[in-house]
Design goal:
The complex is a heterodimer of chains A (167) and B (609).
Chain A: H1 5-14, H2 22-33, H3 38-48, H4 52-61, E1 73-78, H5 81-85, H6 88-99, E2 112-117, E3 129-131, E4 134-136, H7 141-166
Parallel strand pairs in A: 1-2
Antiparallel strand pairs in A: 1-3, 3-4
Helix pairs in contact in A: 1-3, 2-3, 3-4, 6-7
Chain B: E1 11-16, H1 19-23, H2 26-39, E2 46-51, E3 63-66, E4 70-72, H3 80-89, H4 115-118, H5 136-141, H6 146-154, H7 157-167, H8 179-188, E5 195-200, H9 209-216, H10 218-232, E6 236-241, H11 246-261, E7 266-269, E8 274-282, H12 292-299, E9 323-327, H13 328-340, H14 342-346, E10 356-363, E11 369-374, H15 379-386, E12 396-401, E13 407-410, H16 420-425, E14 434-439, H17 444-458, H18 464-481, H19 489-503, H20 507-512, H21 514-522, H22 524-532, E15 546-549, H23 559-563, E16 569-570, E17 578-579, H24 589-593, E18 601-604
Parallel strand pairs in B: 1-2, 5-6, 5-9, 6-8, 10-14
Antiparallel strand pairs in B: 1-3, 3-4, 7-8, 10-11, 12-13, 12-14, 15-18, 16-17
Classes of the chains: A alpha+beta (167), B alpha/beta (609).
């Protein structure tokens, strides 16, 4: 998605241009663009009167923010303790192999970003993999293969849908 | 027509909508129930609603029929017509969906008769599977906001504080500081502007009781906070919830809007002249923000790094003002102490730890879920009686409490009564209440490495002892788990661990070494096996194991060879297959796909050369 200054200003205004709402502003921008574009960070710094270095400090400190564009699909492997003892490392290895990237990275075709999370608090479902907000509990390497294949196939269909919408 | 109030319904069908059950599509079941009830023209006498987390997540999605408390587990969309037909219309509860302790045991119909619930004491969880968290009417139906009326109308701030002090309530976030005392200190702290904060940044992996309380009974937390605000003299509160809990954030926000509509939050509460408003702040995925000073700087919109104490937040907190910060579970206890009295509360628990504590029982355990038990209960009671033991007949090895700050409690301490002091004495801590059960297949060196790696990544980097100490320890543990361990590594780990403990500023660093130190203390032999014999007794550490096919058991079914991603398995159909160790990446797929009738793939340690 393209960065539009007006949209970011709208978000800043929503929080009454308050310095203390920096995190909330960045969270909303992240939710909108899936990452924090550099121009957005500069604009936030300017409007909230927070030095750029401090905005950057906050953006790089918290895991929720990404300073690089993320893929269309976000694959999150839970590495909480319950998931760990129930075999999350094997699942993570498999997902890495399948996507060809390590955690925190995005595939070259911008389709997938792989992330790990400390705990999702749904430990009964361990080990868990979340793809685009959908929880896949009691994961096994085979189940994950199936899920990822499904999303890889989606990629091929997507452009046709978009072109239809344009018409 | 006047809208029917909730208490006028004959039956309430309450479908669990906690994170676990939602992931198991409980909303679809709810839709189906509504459809079926409407189709049969029952919507004037039967109510379908969601509830917060039931706690017995292992059995989700869960449906409870009130007022009888009939418990249905693992409900599927397809079961809905049968439930409506048999139970609602004919009055015959569906036995096939009920809980059975074992496949051939008779079904148990009532929730409170099930072993998992029977041994629990519900205080904070009193409303579990009873009310819709998104409907304030339900909370009011079960005496909600009664304590608030009592506190605001009948009591003054001194009396509220005295009551909380007398109850013996201690902080449920881990450290166990007496809540009443904290309130008193904050009240006495000079200044006109004071804040109160609810810490819902539950970061310990494997702990999710705060998520559950916020999702299931958000009004209890809000009510507790208003009472606290009245006692301390604060007019502004913040609820800080971690980003990974979107459902909790949503429910709290809904509850706040409703509480304001009913005049419990806002200006001139209940006509008493008290003003109090609450903001919800969402965390951004930093574990260290669960530490109080870091959390406060995060609310201020800055980088969440801890700062030295004193001054404590009760003297100088948010924007330099006195701030009282308590954990979600602590706040949720407050309304009941006020309405039922301190004496009732202090009647539960041990001499120094009063009331109940919620633990999240997870890992290698049959009944995964949240359990609320009186302080002083033994580990054995929780694991065996409530948890139903270890799956697959495996041997219990340890239970890890307190998350990355805690330690491991071995089998020899199974009869340890759990309270704040006993856990610290055993080298662990209460923490937020995560309880991860480990069996013989869990490698304790790997677990220590796991936690240390966690702390390493979550260290904010301020103190060198924490930043560098954890890094050094992870490097040593990496070497040990990779079979490169040396003589003296254990002693070196102990030495670094003690120094990190001593020289770090906040709780994160001060407790970072606990998982390593306790595993060395109780499982030294496992460390020695890794270092001296290059062997992982639990068959976990990848570098120290090999996958092999037992020629005696192999049925030549070809499944493993077909599934091997690295073409390491060779053989002919109906013959015996073998794994080429040079090609094997130890992904473990062959082990999972080998048919149960053969069970031919095995892990061995030390690895095959």
């Amino acid at each position: 998605m393209k960065f539009i200054p007006k949209e970011v200003i709208k978000i800043i205004n929503k929080y009454h241009v308050k310095k203390s709402k920096l995190l909330a502003v960045l969270t909303d921008i992240q939710a909108k663009y899936n990452w924090l574009p550099p121009d957005a960070i500069k604009l936030v710094s300017e409007k909230l009167c927070v030095p750029l270095i401090d905005v950057y400090g906050v953006a790089s400190f918290y895991h929720a923010f990404s300073l690089t564009p993320r893929g269309k699909h976000i694959v999150t492997v839970c590495s909480g303790t319950a998931c760990h003892v129930r075999g999350a490392p094997i699942i993570l290895d498999r997902v890495q192999d399948q996507l060809g990237i390590s955690p925190g990275c995005t595939t070259k075709d911008d389709q997938f970003t792989l992330e790990t999370v400390n705990c999702l608090g749904a430990c009964a479902l361990a080990p868990i993999v979340v793809v685009d907000g959908h929880y896949h509990g009691q994961s096994t390497t085979q189940k994950i293969d199936l899920v990822l294949t499904k999303y890889k196939k989606k990629k091929k269909r997507k452009p046709t849908k978009k072109s239809r919408k344009k018409k | 027509m006047k809208k029917k109030t909730n208490k006028e319904f004959r039956l309430h069908l309450l479908i669990c909508a906690g994170t676990g059950c939602v992931a198991n599509r409980s909303y679809e079941i709810k839709e189906e129930l509504v459809k079926e009830i409407t189709r049969r023209g029952l919507n004037t006498e039967v109510r379908v609603a969601i509830t917060g987390c039931n706690g017995y997540c292992e059995r989700g999605p869960i449906l409870v029929v009130q007022p009888d408390g009939v418990f249905y587990q693992k409900v599927r969309k397809e079961d809905v017509p049968c439930i409506v037909e048999e139970h609602i219309l004919k009055g015959k509860p569906v036995e096939s969906l009920m809980y059975r302790p074992s496949p051939d045991a008779p079904p148990i119909s009532r929730m409170m008769d099930i072993d998992f619930f029977k041994h629990q004491t519900s205080v904070v969880f009193r409303n579990r599977s009873r009310l819709d968290p998104e409907d304030i009417e339900d909370y009011l139906r079960f005496d909600g906001y009664k304590a608030l009326k009592k506190a605001l109308v009948e009591m003054n701030s001194g009396q509220i504080i005295a009551e909380i002090k007398l109850s013996g309530l201690r902080g449920r976030g881990g450290a166990g500081f007496p809540t009443g005392l904290k309130w008193e200190l904050c009240r006495k702290s000079p200044g006109n502007i004071k804040y109160i904060v609810c810490n819902g940044d539950e970061g310990d992996p494997g702990a999710f009781m705060d998520r559950s309380v916020l999702e299931a009974d958000p009004h209890a937390v809000i009510e507790g906070m208003i009472i606290g605000a009245r006692a301390i003299g604060a007019h502004k509160g913040f609820i800080y919830v971690r980003k990974e809990y979107p459902l909790a954030v949503k429910r709290v926000k809904i509850a706040l809007v409703q509480a304001e509509e009913y005049g419990f939050v806002g200006e001139n509460i209940l006509g008493t002249g008290c003003d109090f408003s609450v903001d919800v702040v969402q965390g951004s995925g930093a574990f260290v923000c669960g530490e109080e000073t870091a959390l406060l700087t995060s609310i201020e919109g800055r980088v969440g790094r801890p700062r030295p104490r004193p001054p404590y937040p009760i003297e100088k907190g948010l924007w330099g003002r006195p701030t009282n910060i308590n954990n979600v579970e602590t706040w949720a206890n407050v309304p009941q102490i006020i309405s039922k009295g301190a004496e009732w509360f202090s009647g539960i628990g041990t001499k120094r730890s009063k009331g109940t504590k919620i633990f999240s029982l997870v890992g290698k355990i049959n009944n995964t879920g949240l359990v609320e038990v009186p302080m002083g209960i033994t580990v054995r009671e929780i694991v065996d009686e409530i948890g139903g033991g270890i799956p697959g007949g495996k041997e219990f090895k340890a239970v890890q409490t307190g998350g990355p700050s805690g330690g491991c409690i071995p089998k020899s301490l199974l009869d340890l009564p759990i309270d704040y002091e006993s856990l610290v004495k055993a080298g662990s801590m209460m923490g937020s209440g995560g309880m991860i059960v480990m069996d013989e297949d869990t490698c304790m060196v790997d677990i220590a490495r796991y936690f240390l790696d966690f702390t390493l990544h979550e260290s904010c980097g301020k103190c060198p002892s924490c930043r560098l100490g954890t890094k050094q320890m992870v490097e040593i543990l990496d070497r040990i788990t990779e079979g490169e361990g040396k003589e003296g590594d254990i002693e070196f780990l102990e030495d670094i661990g003690k120094n990190v403990k001593l020289a770090s500023l906040c709780g994160l660093g001060q407790t970072a070494a606990n998982p390593v130190l306790t595993t060395i203390k109780y499982f030294r032999d496992e460390y020695l096996a890794h270092i001296k014999e290059k062997r992982c007794p639990a068959l976990v550490c990848k570098s120290l194991i090999s996958y092999v096919i037992d020629p005696e058991l192999c049925g030549g079914c070809t499944v493993c060879a077909k599934n091997c991603p690295s073409d390491a398995i060779t053989g002919e159909p109906k013959e015996i297959y073998t794994i080429d160790q040079k090609k094997c990446t130890k992904c473990g797929i062959c082990l999972t796909v080998c048919p149960p009738k053969f069970k031919a793939v095995k892990k061995v340690s030390p690895p095959v050369k």
